[in-house]
Specification:
By secondary structure, the chain is an alpha/beta fold. It has four domains: 80 residues, Arc Repressor Mutant, subunit A; 67 residues; 50 residues; 157 residues, Ribonuclease H-like superfamily/Ribonuclease H (Nucleotidyltransferase, domain 5), CATH 3.30.420. The longest helix is centred in the first third of the chain and has 25 residues.
Length: 451
């Protein structure tokens, strides 16, 4: 190991104090370990230039024990303790500690130097040192250690009985005794590292830590009848003022056994071959800057007890709100025409949204196209056989069926029709969307108008 003189050490420390570099920079510059540079700086700050003068110390057993007790009581590292007591080699403290735990104060006494002399055969058994011959410091140190060991073993046996104690049980005993005995000594008895102890201690409180959040997650899940996954539940929790990560919500939902009941969504399309088509003016530009700029529409089918019910809605691409809808047991033109009249009635005179649909026969009817021309609305149609051109409308149908139709049982189409009206009201007013900043469509539109 390379020896460095006092002048060199002071030079390196002075460079650090003059901000000519940090520990690692100076270590690279002089070919040193950065831990060595840090140790020199700490020793200089604690003891000045005297810290680097040569000294030949022979520490007494009492001094070693006082250093160890100070380290244990203040939960200091070897390096911190060495700096405070001006001990050049921090590693020697671990030797002292092992020696004391294995042989008490006698093991800390320095061994005689030089070559051992030949031992004569003892004629009688040597006398064991009596308590009167031992120092008060020795007796107190041994008494403290025995008390700690006795308390530890008693508590551990009460927890684990004759069986071998687990890490969790050892952690509990150390935690209960740490207010009365040195932490380092307890960890030695338990054969636990400090990191393991604190990790196990954190696990004990994890269940209580998320108790309130679990209750909130369960309430939100039940309120929305299993339709919300962990992302929407996270958004609702955040709206109530709690900061939480979506990964935590996902993990806690797994612990609670909660899983969204929504089925995978499917795209559907309805096509016809009569009348005239219109060009695809929308071009899959499904974003709108304001309300009533871009609308989409389509027709979907439900089957209940052998009977069918058809739904014709119109959706605003600005916030995903259902502007108007109509249902019928047959896919007649009057259903689409009535839906369109309801939607047009909600427009202001200056509002002329583009209305996009597929190439269904209802949208090719001259009467339908005449309604649009009279209000100066631009008609747009998907390309033939391409459902992705009307993906926003198909997406709503997927959500509707996954969150409502597949999760409920209906005895008649009348019951289904009533349920559809309730769900669409819920979809517009209560169901939040993450892309709408955690607001429902109506809330988002109202907030934009207020601004």
């Amino acid at each position: 190991m390379t020896k460095y003189d006092e002048r060199f050490k002071l030079s390196v420390v002075q460079q650090y104090l003059d901000q000519q570099g940090g520990y690692k920079t100076l270590a690279l510059k002089h070919g040193l370990a950065h831990s060595m540079v840090r140790r020199w700086v700490e020793r200089f700050r604690a003891h000045g230039s005297e810290a680097f003068k040569k000294k030949f110390s022979h520490y007494s057993a009492e001094f070693k024990l006082s250093v160890l007790r100070h380290m244990w009581e203040n939960e200091m590292s070897y390096g911190q303790t060495a700096v405070q007591f001006d001990i050049r080699n921090p590693g020697i403290l671990s030797v002292w500690e092992r020696s004391f735990h294995s042989g008490g104060l006698d093991a800390l006494k320095p061994r005689p130097r030089g070559r051992p002399t030949a031992m004569a055969v003892p004629t009688a058994k040597p006398d064991m040192p009596s308590d009167e011959k031992r120092s008060r410091e020795e007796l107190l140190a041994e008494l403290d250690y025995l008390r700690m060991e006795n308390a530890y073993l008693k508590k551990l046996q009460a927890l684990s009985g004759p069986a071998e104690a687990s890490v969790a049980e050892k952690t509990q005993v150390v935690h209960e005794l740490r207010q009365h005995y040195p932490m380092a000594g307890l960890l030695k008895l338990a054969q636990l590292s400090r990191s393991t102890f604190y990790y196990r201690l954190s696990l004990r409180h994890e269940g209580d830590k998320y108790g309130e959040l679990k209750a909130a997650i369960k309430a939100i899940f039940e309120r929305h009848k299993g339709r919300y996954g962990y992302r929407r539940i996270t958004a609702v929790v955040k709206q109530s003022g709690h900061l939480v990560n979506h990964k935590v919500v996902q993990r806690l939902m797994g612990v609670l056994g909660l899983k969204s009941l929504v089925r995978p969504k499917k795209y559907r399309s309805f096509k016809g071959e009569v009348g005239q088509t219109a060009p695809n003016e929308l071009q899959r530009q499904f974003k709108a800057e304001a309300a009533n700029q871009k609308w989409v529409t389509d027709v979907t089918e439900f089957n209940v007890a052998g009977e069918k019910l058809y739904l014709s809605p119109v959706l605003d691409l600005y916030n995903g709100e259902i502007i108007a809808f109509e249902t019928n047991r047959r896919p007649v033109f009057d259903m689409v025409s009535s839906m369109l009249n309801k939607a047009l009635a909600k427009l202001q005179p200056h509002e002329k949204p583009m209305l996009h649909s597929d190439q269904g026969w209802q949208y090719r009817m001259p009467a339908y196209q005449r309604q649009l021309r009279e209000r100066q609305l631009v008609q747009s149609m998907s390309r033939k056989g391409n459902c992705h051109d009307n993906a926003a409308m198909e997406s709503f149908f997927g959500v509707l069926k996954s969150e409502f139709f597949y999760l409920n049982r209906f005895d008649s189409v009348d019951e289904l029709s009533t349920g559809l009206a309730d769900y669409i009201h819920y979809y517009n007013h209560d169901r939040i969307k993450l892309k709408l900043k955690g607001l429902s469509p109506v809330q988002y539109r109202a907030q934009a108008l207020a601004a």
